[in-house]
Amino acid sequence: MIVLFTGIGVVVLAAGISVVGFLLISKYVPERWLVADADAAGALYASIGMVYAILIAIAAIAVWEPHTDAREATSQEAADLIEIQQLSSQLPAASRPAIHRLTVTYTESVVASEWPALHDTHAQSPESAALFQQLRTAIEQVNPSSNQEQSAYDAVLGRISDAADARRTRISAADKSMPPLLWPVLIISSLVSVGFLYLFGLDRTFPNGIMMATVGGMIALVLFVIFQIEYPFSRALAIDPAPFILALQQIGGS
């Protein structure tokens, strides 16, 4: 809810600044300094708009791809843990308790410890990393004695390997953000996109003011959404640990 009000405030503020700029320019800047050829100005502004749209697309891709990868990896890792727990019932009896305990403990640690770390520091939890390694070691130390146990062991090995890949993807995506140079470029381009409209020499009418407010507000909204989605596990559009919580329910965790 706070983010919603913040977003509304950003949009309203940007819209207000756009209108104030329009009113000041139209009142104090001499007409001879404003664009006289509306057709030429319109064609130029179309080019500016196209370049700005390309920049927005680049920014959206830069933040959305890591976000998508992290979401898919989260679901994959949780699914692998469920399968490991289910398949472990076919492993040698001596190995089952440790694998069951470590699977549950690791999943609980991801929810309780690692997710806050991903949110606050964009880094993994050392506790969760250690528990995952213990789980992997416990699985690798299993000694199957029958064909059925060997088949289950091979399947569990494949699942823990897939979980490790998914975990690496999830962790590596946590600190992927907008390329540093792109934010200044986007902000400057946004100012140019709004400021160029002032050069059209529009009359100080209510519809023209609404147009300026709409352009400024929409640009601010786009930048605000990109900012909120920049880090996969932080800010308003962060990925939640729901797949791991569901996994805990299925494997018998708290």
Features:
254 residues, mainly alpha, 2 domains, 8 helices, 76% helix
Radius of gyration (CA) equals 27 Å
Estimate the strand proportion.
under 5%
Q: State the order of secondary-structure elements, H for helix, E for strand.
A: HHHHHHHH
How many strand elements?
Answer: 0
Structural class: mainly alpha
What's the structural domain tally?
Answer: 2
- On the 0 to 100 scale, the average pLDDT is 93
Cα-to-Cα separation, first versus last residue: 29 Å
Main pleated-sheet profile: none
Q: Kindly state the percentage of residues in helix.
A: over 70%
Helical run tally: 8
Q: Report low-confidence residues grouped into runs of 5 or more.
A: none
Anisotropy-based shape: rod-shaped
